[in-house]
Amino acid sequence: MEVIRSIENMQPLESSVVTIGNYDGIHLGHQDILKHIIETAKKESIPSCLITFDPYPAYILSNDSKPMNLQDIDSKLAALEEMGVDKVLVIPFTLEFSRMSAEDFSENIIKRLFNPKLISVGENHYFGFNKRGDISFLTKFCHENNIDLHTPEIRVLHGKPISSTLTRGLIYDGLLDQVPSLLGKFYGFNVVTVHGSNRGKSMNYPTANFIPLSKYQMIPEGGVYLSRVLLDGEEYFGMANIGYRPTFNEKKFVMEVHILSDKFSDLYDKRFYIEFLNKIRNEIKFESKEYLIKQIENDKEVCIKLIDSFKEKYEI
């Protein structure tokens, strides 16, 4: 897969099949579009292409936007390559670029650079300044330029259209076990270990403290989670804690994971991928360290009981 990281470096194509969007998380609706453009491009012997943006536009257009990415750009590109997309234009999203009109975007980027035979987007897609490039605009543009327009049937979960926004809502609410219904996989991200206080080790539950590789990564709400760590081609179930350790009156936000396997040594000085499978409980302040240890023991039992059911249900 070829990745072009600026408009200036994009060489015009003779023909292509194109989709446009942030594609954050690459949910099932995104996957429908991507499969369609890949299959169509193969039949026509032309490249399948995605026009996307980095960073997420909300960070540029809003000064107080909290981290909300479902995946970093590298994870997204890796997933796109695995699916079989041929070319990805990653446009650096800036305040200046945000002012580009839908007319300029469609003429100077879509048409001039990609010359598409087909464009595929969701019905609620838009581009250009003031969101002018909506589906009605794109329908007219495609008609005038003899381009086929494909809009897949909208996928729905519990009566709501599947979207990146809906996925973020589930994560924010701690409903991590429902995320695979939208993404086709569990929510997770790449992390790196950092030095902690060794508090877990002092309670006979050693943990690895970690932070996301991307500063824009969305973090699940505070609490204890059954998790899965992927490292060097191996997978390990774990018990992750996210929060402020209220029992010890700490103010620093911490993410840590305890591996539920005797075959594993440690995660120190490692980069790994962690998935959050199920929320066990909210963060609680206990009367003492001893009460906390008893709760951790209970949490561990709950996690171990859940592992088999997750393996069977999701084939993980």
Describe this structure in words.
It contains 10 helices and 14 strands. The two termini are 28 Å apart. It has 316 residues and is an alpha/beta fold. Helix 6 links the parallel strand 5 (116-120) and strand 6. It is elongated, with a radius of gyration of 22 Å.
SSE arrangement:
Blueprint: E1 2-4, E2 16-20, H1 28-44, E3 48-54, H2 57-61, H3 73-83, E4 87-92, H4 95-98, H5 102-114, E5 116-120, H6 135-144, E6 148-150, E7 156-157, E8 160-161, H7 164-172, H8 180-183, E9 187-194, H9 199-202, E10 208-212, E11 223-231, E12 234-243, E13 254-259, E14 271-281, H10 289-314
Parallel strand pairs: 1-4, 2-3, 2-5, 3-4, 5-6
Antiparallel strand pairs: 7-8, 9-10, 9-14, 10-13, 11-12, 11-14, 12-13
Overview in brief:
This protein is of the alpha/beta class and 316 residues long. It has ten helices and 14 strands. It starts with a strand and ends with a helix.
What are the key terms here?
alpha/beta; Elongation Factor Tu (Ef-tu), domain 3; 6-stranded parallel sheet; 6-stranded antiparallel β-barrel; 10 helices; 14 strands; elongated
